Amino acid sequence: MTFTGKQLTTQLDADGTLTLQLNDKTWDAPKGTQVLVKVEASPINPSDLGLLFASADTANAQYSPGKIVAQMPANATRAMKARHGMAMPAGNECAGTVVAAGDDPAAQALIGKRYACVPGSAYASYAYADANMGFAVDDSVSAEQAASSFVNPMTALGFTETMKLEGFTGIVHAAAASNLGQMLVKICLEDGIPLVNIVRSEDQVQLLKGLGATHVLDMTAPDFMPRLIDAIAETKAMIGFDPIGGGTLSGQILTAMEAAASRGAAFSRYGSSEAKKVYIYGALDIGPTILNRAFGLTWDLAGWLLTPFMAKAGMEVMGRMRARVMKDLTTTFASHYAKKGNLDDMLTKDAVSMYNARRTGEKYLVVPN
Amino acid sequence: MTFTGKQLTTQLDADGTLTLQLNDKTWDAPKGTQVLVKVEASPINPSDLGLLFASADTANAQYSPGKIVAQMPANATRAMKARHGMAMPAGNECAGTVVAAGDDPAAQALIGKRYACVPGSAYASYAYADANMGFAVDDSVSAEQAASSFVNPMTALGFTETMKLEGFTGIVHAAAASNLGQMLVKICLEDGIPLVNIVRSEDQVQLLKGLGATHVLDMTAPDFMPRLIDAIAETKAMIGFDPIGGGTLSGQILTAMEAAASRGAAFSRYGSSEAKKVYIYGALDIGPTILNRAFGLTWDLAGWLLTPFMAKAGMEVMGRMRARVMKDLTTTFASHYAKKGNLDDMLTKDAVSMYNARRTGEKYLVVPN
Q1: What is the value of pTM for the model shown?
Q2: For chain A, does the N or the C end have fewer beta carbons within 10 angstroms?
Q3: Backbone phi, psi, residue B156, to 5°
Q4: Which residues of A touch B288 (CB under 8 A)?
Q5: Domain count along chain B
Q6: How far does B72 lie from chain A, in Å, by closest CA?
Q7: Do both A123 and A208 map to the same domain?
């Protein structure tokens, strides 16, 4: 038995031409622990945008039905040499119905079920997934509710696990009004973890306060820095997570941590000896990171990525995280979408200019079938 | 019995006035494990300059015999609030003769000996030191030879120990023609550790090649980046140490590590998963650190400082490091000075404009007596 439909691919050529297009595709019967999922809902996360478009000029691209041709800047083209000429599928996660399964009993048991999974090729009519890497949801859970079961929930839980693994006791989170940020607010409330939320507007302050957040700071306010220092001094939040990356914010968080750690302490020319760390886990701003280094010599700035974190955390932690997501999928881990569309819709100029702007709260959900 | 002489202090007031001056001082008899050292030679290291002058405007300061009054920028004045109004002694390390000792047998045993130590107040006629924190040198070793027995040697050895502790197998070192850098070249040769040296001129390339260094790259050369990538690919040097701090170099090292790690690997939108780390251990450039983040999401940039490193490394590693410095003080760990002067000399405009420029190879040695 085979299945036919369409699959989106993104291809970057050596001359900088980026082509996204829908291709007809036939899926053969899955094997072993593989299942074939009829994709019902798949979010476009920032991590997907990096593969789909990277820094290509989507404003001046050519849009035709089922196809986009855009130009990538020369330095980005060079940096992604390893993908030149390859038509790559995309779409990290989705929910859908299992329409076929390999011989393995774990796979067979999923036939007919709605399955939340991480195929990496979810922008398609069908996608292969592994029977051991996702989870079936109750019939009462919609595909839309199950679509974002991995990237954001596991990342938000990964932050609290990272905090514990590294001996910290409170978290600073930037761009905190995002879907992920809202999950983190709820997780930290449930677990009693002090959380300092940094957002970009008074509306976002009200949004997170409405969820029960205690510390929510508008980074556009004139008293942002003194308030950040106060909040960190009060919460002892000495680990931060920043998805913006570009600009000065990561450095400002370290500066505020240093100021909070130095309060009342004797002068040291090298700064406070208290550990302070900020992880950059995204690139909402692809510009350079600028550090004024007004934070002594005891500091750490690093990249954070879900996959290596999970490898480091190990199976037991992973299993605990996944069980919690399954249990609270429609509450703590609920996601919201500003717009939905099928595979053709997602390739229109209107859709791309909306979701590729990566604005907080403006997430796109792809519903292929 | 008391001893009289002069001591240099540096004081920053709340209005930004920075005053360095020589004060008459009387030293009482030392107690317990304390010894009193008649200071013979003390280097001015970059780490001393941070306390002495920080970012004060020494070009437009008022110089009078035994006194300098300079203005500190407002932001730096605010950042150093904890030292306002305090007349702080300075001078991390020195060598001198023990002229008095506390009751403790370890202290008594040092009387009359030449002692290499870390008093933190060495820019003075005399300084108290702890009998357990330094080491006596042979009569054949001069004070000048023993003056820099701690900061640079322990830092250079600390880099190789950090490399081992964190599971790396090769080092990239920036500003590598410094006294410290020359020590690191010799240590790495002795220990068979691959080392990539980054310097700023062809003269410095020749200097380090003369010491036997294999990889020495001039960062001002047009082909610096491709050569850095090649050298890192060859040596697998995935940990770097950068005393410059400001500008783009730390980010360039991470970029070169990423390019070397990705060679021949399949494309990953998140970059290579190989650990890559750069430590900033100084501020030769006090401008902002600028990271273009062209190095995926598996990277780490952190501050490195000797004292917390030693606390983390533990007594056994520390003891091993110190024994090695004692043994090879006049060979591997030899330092060179461009100029010498007494306490009055070091406060002249000529001297300050020389040593506060922090140019590679232009180190000043203070000889108070």
Answers
A1: 0.90
A2: N
A3: -60, -45
A4: 251, 290-293
A5: 2
A6: 15
A7: no
